[in-house]
What does this fold into?
Amino acid sequence: MTYVVTDNCIACKYTDCVEVCPVDCFYEGETMLVIHPDECIDCGVCEPECPPDAISPDTEPDMDKWVEFNRKYSIMWPVIITKKDALPDADARDGETGKLESYFNENAGAGG
Ligand code: SF4
Ligand code: F3S
It folds into this structure.
């Protein structure tokens, strides 16, 4: 089992989650974070810390694609262990539909 970041992180990226993860398994893209599924120890402490509820356990329905999505980008992007400012329009983008198509890109974030 693992926890994964899903599409409501896109264009928000509040980063509260990285502050509580005991194993530093969040990785930063330009528009969102992901979790490395093989590093996550399933502690669950990050889930309630995310303002837009973008973190879910893979036991919820239809999570397979998000596990593979998180795995793919966690290998490509740098680790992030320090909270930073959310993206500029984070509050306005929270809850929008179609964020993957509208805002996501594969660019790495700065990490740190
Ligand atoms: Fe880190 Fe625990 Fe969240 Fe996994 S469930 S990403 S180990 S805080
Ligand atoms: Fe994203 Fe939520 Fe973390 S918005 S950066 S998963 S706190």
The two ends are 26 Å apart (CA to CA). The pocket of iron/sulfur cluster (ligand 1) is lined by residues 3, 20-21, 23, 25, 35, 40-46 (CB under 6 Å).
